[in-house]
């Protein structure tokens, strides 16, 4: 079983009723700069307001600006030539994007679009690189963020390769629970991703997600009304993740591929 989800599941199983919000480092890129470095670039950092649905950077485009999320949320995706969306992650306040192209000089590796009205701080590539070379604290912070990205993508590759749709959905629901916070063995995700959004996240189609959520509702593990998704028994959901995680033979006993 992938280590990160295993740790989360084991922590929850061992302590029902405790709130488990998603672990996040306090502050963002700008907050971790040494005061003299922050003062040096402050006059050149510009703020940018964006509307829900607005694309900030486009996959394959040129550009070196780096964006710090001050308010709101953003979806990071790539698209096939046929237009199929491949969802990578959702990022929120304190997160950074655009850093890959700023670091290696390449093209943008993904499309980033606003999932809500949002506010960004925009740093030019020259200032971003200068911050990394003169501010050890922010360099360590960025290294840790990149390590988180690698872990997340490793999990996704594992799940797509080794687990069926049912198990992949269980894993994604567990992540949503932990991001929302778990209290007294329940979690509420509001607004929840649409069934189509969940399908994009786990590499399947909307009908398969609807079918699996209906099965979980029959088992009284979830309840959904409009965009409000309640996980009624996080302990049972976590055990489903634990039983199938990393075991292709067990995973193939249920659900569609």
How would you sum up this structure in a few lines?
The chain is elongated. The protein has helices spanning 3-13, 35-42, 99-104, 125-134, 136-162, 165-180, 195-202, 206-218, 234-244, 248-251, and strands at 46-50, 55-57, 66-71, 74-79, 85-91, 96-97, 111-114, 118-123, 187-189, 222-225, 228-231.
Give an overview of the whole structure.
By secondary structure, this protein is of the alpha+beta class. It has two domains: 3-23 and 164-251, Arc Repressor Mutant, subunit A (Orthogonal Bundle), CATH 1.10.10.10; 34-134, Jelly Rolls, CATH 2.60.120.10. The chain has helices at residues 3-13, 35-42, 99-104, 125-134, 136-162, 165-180, 195-202, 206-218, 234-244, 248-251, and strands spanning 46-50, 55-57, 66-71, 74-79, 85-91, 96-97, 111-114, 118-123, 187-189, 222-225, 228-231. Strand 10 (222-225) and strand 11 (228-231) form a beta hairpin. The model is unreliable at 11-26 and 246-257 (pLDDT under 50).
